[in-house]
Amino acid sequence: MEGSEAARLLGERSLEPPARFRTYRRRWFLLAVVCLLNCSNAMLWLTFAPVADKTAAYFHISLEMVNWLSMVYLLISIPFGLVATWVLDSVGLRSAVLLSAWLNMVGSITRLFSVLKFLSLGSQNYWYLFIGQCFCALAQPLIIFSPTKLAALWFPDHQRATANMIASMSNPLGILIANLLSPALVPEGKHIPLMLGISAVPAVTACALATLGIHEKVPPTPPSASATNSNSQPFFTGLKMLLRNKPYIILAVCFGGGIGMFTCFSALLEQILCEKGYSNDFAGLNGALFTVCGLLGAFLLGMYVDRTRKFIESTKICFCLSALASIMFAVTSRFRHQAIMLAITSSLFGFFGFAIYPIAMELAVECSYPVGEGTSTGLIFVASQIEGVILMILLQALTVRVSEDPFSTCALDQDGALDWTTPVLVQAGLCSGMACFYVIFFHTDYKRLHAETVSADLAKAEDAVTAHVPES
Question: Which Gene3D superfamilies does the UniProt record give (predicted)?
Fold first, then answer.
């Protein structure tokens, strides 16, 4: 009886340490595939934003219709985000990656139909673009949610934040490539077919690598104690736990709002700057600096947090500094001939803002453990998409049309340029408000790290007892 009771108590432990942990070199291949998928999906999302005016002229559509090619990502990922969290935590990482790879590839190819003469719909070719973007938008939640799951299942605890940082930051890398590549490939509207063709190549490559190279749902032996419990909570149970978790709700609202603001910044940057006489190339350069500095900030902060485990302190400091940078950009962008200051403010905004992203995703897992990684990060992403849609609609509604502006470089002169003074100031104010709210009210324990520490102590104690028991 005593033996059965001991076995029952051992089974009820939140973490039951296996005999040993192990890492596999193929985890780096999985990380590379997820990175390529994430990068290509971001490229497809913002293909048209840096050349919005030329896209509108080429397809004979309004600027608002071009903006919908970006906004459809936000709208579709809201309902499908919940489906994606269930797929990731219930069906598995492999299925999620394969499904996202095929959706991403189908979307990139569908967009090409808009410029193929034998499939031409005349004035309705725009709908090929829209349907293609919808397929890519379905893939986005599966791709965005994968890094934390991949890091938890395949990487040891001292590499999780770094692996999550690398996989997560491949998304802004795709934004960077789109900001540089689209203006370079489309000096005139007639080059848009070339842009569509080149942007489809990474999606097709990622789909081939995922289909041929990913064969396992989980590693044969887990890399850490928490990996053994990665799927322990059923989806709906985990969802209820998250909705009752006050620190998680605060993190989801504040960090989700931050993602929404970065989405609007990336999608609307060209339109904000062209009204003050800045070229598409300069807007693309600012977008590139925004992303490159963000990648650098995320890399440095990811390495720091992996060593210090100071998740909360790091995110609070960076959130405040990114709010200050947003205020600087809002003021500077309202003046002409401020190229250097705009470049500096865009760089600072990216450096501090993007640095928060992978750390906040890890923090979401820490404050919600033992809820599955896909569910905890997925709900934040859904919140960010909802906030992003509201913010993008609000910002566009606050614009004022300015007719016959001699300084404007916007291509749609017949409609006049849009004055973005009020929208950028509102965005800076919202960013500052969320930063203050997060700093004051967010506090949590590191539940996953604590559980792993307890598990390690139990394992050491059991080993010590075993070593002192004489053999019979």
Answer: MFS general substrate transporter like domains
What letter represents residue 217's amino acid?
Answer: K
Burial, 442: exposed, middle or buried (Cβ in 10 Å; 0-12, 13-18, 19+)? buried
d(CA 232, CA 192): 48
Give the burial string for 278-303 (b: 16+ CB within 10 Å, else e).
bebebbbbbbbbbbbbbbbbbbebbe
- The DSSP secondary structure of 264-285, one letter per residue, reads HHHHHHHHHHHTTT--HHHHHH
Token pair in block for residue 189: 């509207």
- Confidence bin at 5 (pLDDT 50/70/90): very low
The pLDDT of 333-348, averaged and rounded, is 90
End-to-end CA distance of the chain: 21
> CA neighbours within 13 Å on the CB side: how many for 106?
12
CB contact burial 394-414 (16+ within 10 A = b; e otherwise): ebbebbeeeeebeebbbbbee
By CB neighbour count within 10 A (0-12 exposed, 13-18 middle, 19+ buried), where does 10 fall? exposed
Q: Which range is least confidently modeled, 88-97, 143-152, 440-449, 455-464?
A: 455-464
* CB-based burial label for 9 (10 Å; 0-12, 13-18, 19+): exposed
Do the Cβ atoms of 377 and 358 come closer than 8 Å? no
Whole-angstrom Cα distance, residue 365 to residue 199?
33
Q: What was the pLDDT predicted at 415? A: 55
Instruction: Please state whether the predicted TM-score (pTM) of the whole model is above 0.90.
Output: no
pLDDT digits (tens, 9 = 90+) for 188-231: 878 889 999 999 999 999 999 999 988 888 787 777 666 665 54
